[in-house]
């Protein structure tokens, strides 16, 4: 899978997705980019040097589309820590049910926006 995630429980306002990236906290900010859309995010990390392959710089990209529920792109962010990059996805608050739980990060093929039947 290559990542871990938390915050999927009911009532939590953000999903936290963590990616292991050696030396991420030492990379300059211009080497890490993350774009957000209504149901996707696209993380790019450049010039990563893995301990198993010193002196060689790698570029990594993770694009997750078809998230289980829509997110608020303006409320999303990322941060680099020692050896990981953390992507924070802002859930959209449902007026009747608050911040809903997510059973999976992505819905897979054929995703339809989640809606409660009135």
Number of helices: 0
Structural class: mainly beta
Distance between the termini: 36 Å
Task: Please state the CA-atom Rg, rounded to the nearest Å.
Answer: 16 Å
Tally of strands: 7
Oligomer description = single chain
Topology as H/E string? EEEEEEE
Low-confidence stretches: none
Shape: elongated
pLDDT averaged residue by residue: 89
Q: What is the percent of helical residues?
A: under 10%
| Main sheet: strands, sense, barrel | 4 strands, antiparallel
Largest sheet, spatial ordering of strands: 1-2-7-6
Proportion of strand residues: 35-45%
Q: What can you see in these coordinates?
A:
The structure is a single chain. 0% of the residues lie in helices and 39% in strands. The chain has 118 residues and is mostly beta strands. It is elongated, with a radius of gyration of 16 Å.
Keywords, separated by commas or semicolons:
118 residues; mainly beta; 4-stranded antiparallel sheet; 3-stranded antiparallel sheet; 0% helix
Summarize the structure.
This protein has 118 residues and is mainly β.
What is the fold's blueprint, element by element?
Blueprint: E1 3-6, E2 14-20, E3 32-37, E4 40-48, E5 58-65, E6 77-81, E7 84-90
Antiparallel strand pairs: 1-2, 2-7, 3-4, 4-5, 6-7
